[in-house]
Hints:
This protein has helices at 10-13, 21-42, 55-66, 68-83, 98-102, 107-125, 132-162, 164-171, 176-201. It has a single domain (10-201), classed as Arp2/3 complex 21 kDa subunit ARPC3. 38% of the residues are buried. It is globular. By secondary structure, the chain is mostly helical. The protein starts with 9 loop residues before the first helix and ends with a helix. Helix 7 runs antiparallel to helix 8.
Amino acid sequence: MADITVNPVLAEVMGPREGSAVWVKRAFLVIVGVIAMTIAAKIKLPMWPVPATMQTFVVLSVGAAYGLRLGLTTLLCYLALGAIGLNVFTGSSVENYGIAYMMGSTGGYLLGFAVATVVMGALARRGWDRSMGWMALAMLIGNVVIYAFGLPWMAYLFVDSKGLAWVMQWGLTNFLVSDAVKLALAAMLMPMMWKLVGNARG
């Protein structure tokens, strides 16, 4: 069973751990995280039944690897860049960007990203990212959190015009297969990273 004590997260055990260099490391990690989220949002993978991005994988992995505070800081910086009009979101473009885009169909999911990042950081503090089973469960919880915010917002916008079945299909069921693949990938990757860190330190 996962340790119930407070554990360090990956970002804390890699690189400088004290002094001013820690703040440089944190700033670097935020930049890397924002870039990774942006790239993951733009890459379309040939999944079934619809193409999928790796954005949820990156968002939830950053939450686990960075911890609650740094993970949330990274996600908020990403959202702030999108809010001022930079093309960082999955469907944003020069014609569809900024706050207007964030209030559209994906708005609830973007809010869910922030909450899920906090949840993943808290679970990583309990050591859930160190074994495949617990990391898989953490990813499942993180995805549930995202949908818990995304689906109600989509329903608010579209249920009257398109119906509940359409909302469920395009807000949830079309992405369950890709979510399962990303869950399995994270469940393998995060414990592997911890093993590599342990071997390097040992």
